Amino acid sequence: MKPSAKQFVPFALFALALVLVQSILRATGREYCLTQLTMSLYYAIVVIGLCLVMGYAGQVSLGHGAFFAIGGYTSAVLTTHDFSRFNTTDWAGALRQAHLLVAKDDLYGNQVVTASPWAAFLAAMLATLVIAGLIGYPALRLKGHYLAMATLGFGLIVYKTVLGTALFGAADGINGVPEWNLGFGLTVSGRSALRVENYYIAGTLVMVLLVLLRNLIHSRVGRALQAIHDRETAAGAMGINTAAYKLRAFVLSALLAAMAGAFFTHYTGGIGPSEASAFKSVRYVALAASGGMASLWGVTGMSTLLNYLSLRGLFGSYDNAVFGAILITIVSLAPEGPLKPLGLWMQTMAGKMFGARRVEAAMENK
Amino acid sequence: MENGSLALQYLLSGVTKGSIYAVVAIGFNLIYSATGVLNFAQGEFVMLGGMVAVTLSHFVPLPVAIVGAVLIVAFIGCLLEITFFRKLRRHSVLHLIIITIGLSIVMQEAALHIWDEKVRSLPYFTGNEVSSLKFLGAAISPQVLWVLGTVAVTVVLLHFFLKYTLRGRAMRACSSNPDAAMLAGINIPNMRTLSFGLSAALGALAGCVISPITMTHYEMGAPLAIKGFAAAILGGMGNPMGAVAGGLLVGILEAFAVSRLPAAYNDVAAFVVLLLVLFVRPHGLFGRPGGESVREH
Amino acid sequence: MKTKLLLVAGACWLSAQLSLPCSAAEEPKPIKIGAIFSVTGPASFLGAPESKTAQMLVDKINASGGVLGQKLELIIKDSSGSPEKAVSFAKQLIEEDKVLAIIGPSTSGETMQIKKLCEENQMILVSCAAADAIVNPLAKYVFKTPQKDSQAATWIYRTMKEKGITKIAVLTGNDGFGASGKKQLEELAKTEGIEIVANEVYDKQATDLTDVLTKVKSTPGVQAVVNWSIVPAQSIVAKNMKQLGMNIPLFQSHGFGNRKYVEQAGVAAEGILFPAGRLLVVDELPASNPQKQLLATYKKDYEAAYKEDVSTFGGHAYDAILIVTEALKKAGTTDRDKVRDAIENLHGLVGTAGIYNFSATDHTGLDLTAFEMLTVKDGKFTIYKK
């Protein structure tokens, strides 16, 4: 399909929205709200990946919190664990030359040798690739609820493992994770001075991933996934290697979740076992469902909005109840996601205000 | 402790936990069999049964409190089905499952705000906190026998109901061939409601009978649901006996894992075994092969 | 095309949402104190009483005129035990509400996640969590109110030695509280002459612990069991031990500090030994005890206001508010650095957990005398007498 300028309009609008929001916040002196927005954008990445798996490949995964945690914990452990013991070996010297291992002072003035954030990130991606592949390969041959159970079980294994192991900080998790110098003068960090920069880093990451996914969906791979979603046996009969496509979708979504985890961990400076819990995994599924499982924009919007409100404590102690209620409402009334009905509603409203025929004409003209 | 009675003690310990998982798994299994829906709120029915019974037990004698709790929760189950599932038959089963997830979240929060975060429990049905029955050098609390007894009676009654009564056979017909069932004049929506109500009732009964052992608190539903789900899958969905076997197996696996590994990893071990079983034999140990796809309903 | 319209509309709506007030407008008059508690979630047994206590105390202080002629405004955020929420709320309290000090969080894990943040932003943090790592290494602005876990462990070990116990089993829950206790018990065992022959971590949501206890029972030479966890496991361990016929002494942690836990363990609670603050046995204290009046008043007020038993956990929040208000009075100003200095100069401050003596090197303020060894007799807490 020939790419046309029209396809990039939604992305341009997204970028515009990002800038608009930040400017309004700066103008009203509420720029601190960017913190919660940044965190929500990172969580949205997990849900976007899940959208690929659930909405397009039609598989249920109740274990994506575990992938977020694998990404986050790998980054956290490698950048906080002291490797001084190995400092004198030859390969340590080589790693230092490659800037993969760094020596620095920790919070209390002691010298420690840790991996650099980039090295840790690459390790996290690699680990996720391997683990997702190992789990996905047998799991994706299961159907429906068996897959749900397998991913749930996998998530639980990861959760209990990080919870029970001292290396991963056990119940307290890992804190003191350093900032991540991305190069080009950009740093992933929680410092308030870098707030705006980090907001745009998160926003850009989301946008880039959305572009990539959108291209994927409109390619042969995407159409194959769609076919598998609709009627798996028919797709198989047509010669589509269903297992391979499902696995790829699964692994890709896992990598997205791990990426989000790594960035998030450097942003907040720490991670805890709760990120791997079934509760979180279920929450991601719920967010994907409430955004309309196959609608990338709906999913991005819904998850950013809901997580933002939750992180700001808007619902206080009723956070979970509100969340559950929204989930039930949307899935009951608008299983395709809120964008279509919202769009229709806005159309009707606009029609009432400006005259139906004019609105219709404007809609048809593009 | 000599080796024989040690092994027996671990076994009894596994049976204690396993019976708890089994009793949750039966409820899971029932709704799945009748409607194809995985009810993630099953754990909350168990929790509600215990909570309501504890509250009632302040006003009426224990057996009355239990009966009351079972009826109230059964009613809630029917109400939930009518409100959320009856109108939504055009939704895919995946969406329905997600709705049960939402329901379990809301029910948990409602329990937190109606009662509070404190832990409570029913008194032991026989004996008290320290009584135990001993045989061959191993000990078990008498309450566990109550749980096992409840499981046994439930399975027998369910079997009888599903095989020999008209309603029960109608329920089985609905799950195996809804279109034919409809043509035969069976009121499918009512059957679904019945299955939800029955499952909720079983869950509530479970909640009452395990309360002295596990203590009842607003957060107990979710971990129980996960274990119950695992047990039902391990045993094979669609078979109440399988659910019981699955539950006992998971419990015993955990107990023996403790004997070998640090206790922190006991359910990791159980879940690893579960995953292996799933990969090799997805329909579980006693289920029918030809795994049903959630999507193709 | 429709998507375009939607997105722009959505962006406008989102920005309208965000321009809504994010928090109460800042008034010059009240002194703002922020609080992060786990009112709901897995640590609710800590956060719920802490939140209630804090609110009750602030209302009481305001009713008698406030501090330095200004009313106190308490902003409570419920983190549900989730560290990312704790981080988010901490940033809100620091940057948006610009509070004088932050009380809480309830758990050590959350506190550690925001410790650096508060220190960098020079925000006073008076944590209600017990982990040693909160004040060691020392951070200028970070304090904590509960007794040290190491002190609780020391009391347990000394009582054991008096009873002639040298070999023990340690059972801990897999949460932050359990992990901290495990660490202290392991570190202090050698110096106190105790040998740990069995050491197990269990799932705090466990429905039954007979398997873990079987493992302990089968380990030769165990003379006592130390259980370091929270409800419901505390009660389950007590019951299971008796059901398995294990008649060796059971020591619990100061997490056992609520009468309800005794009720739940029923008959099995008899004889349990644990270190705790004196709040639980206030009626037994002699009139000359410096803490008696404060504890009796707190207990009376709390139980009247909330119709539930008082617990030592709520007391941590009480002490935190007390520390901040006393420091305010001492400093005579709401300048944060001066208040911080004043905290370090608090001596002999009577709180619920003990008598606080802060210094530049001690940000916990309590020593071993803050604890009393308690036991359960006839279903009630009483001071353990040798």
List keywords for this structure.
heterotrimer, A: 366 residues, mainly alpha, two-stranded antiparallel sheet, 15 helices, 6 strands, 68% helix, 6% strand, globular, B: 297 residues, ABC transporter involved in vitamin B12 uptake, BtuC, 11 helices, disordered C terminus
Structural summary, described in words:
The complex is a heterotrimer of chains A (about 375), B (about 300) and C (about 375). Chain A has about 375 residues and is mainly alpha-helical. Chain A has one domain (about 5-335). Chain A contains 15 helices and six strands. In chain A, the strands form three sheets. In chain A, strands 1-2 form a two-stranded antiparallel sheet. Chain A has a two-stranded antiparallel sheet with strand order 3-6. In chain A, helix 2 (about 35-55) runs antiparallel to helix 10. Chain B is mostly helical and about 300 residues long. Chain B has helices at about 5-35, 40-55, 60-85, 95-115, 140-165, 165-175, 180-185, 190-215, 220-235, 240-260, 265-280; strands spanning about 135, 140. In chain B, helix 2 packs parallel to helix 4 (about 95-115), helix 2 (about 40-55) packs across helix 9 (about 220-235) and helix 10 (about 240-260) packs across helix 11. The termini of chain B are far apart. Chain C contains twelve helices and 14 strands. Chain C has helices spanning about 1-20, 45-65, 85-95, 110-120, 150-160, 175-190, 210-215, 235-245, 260-265, 290-305, 310-330, 335-345; strands spanning about 30-35, 70-80, 100-105, 125, 140-145, 165-175, 195-200, 225-230, 250, 275, 350, 355, 370-375, 380-385. Chains in contact: A-B, A-C, B-C. The interface between A and C is large, with 57 and 53 residues.
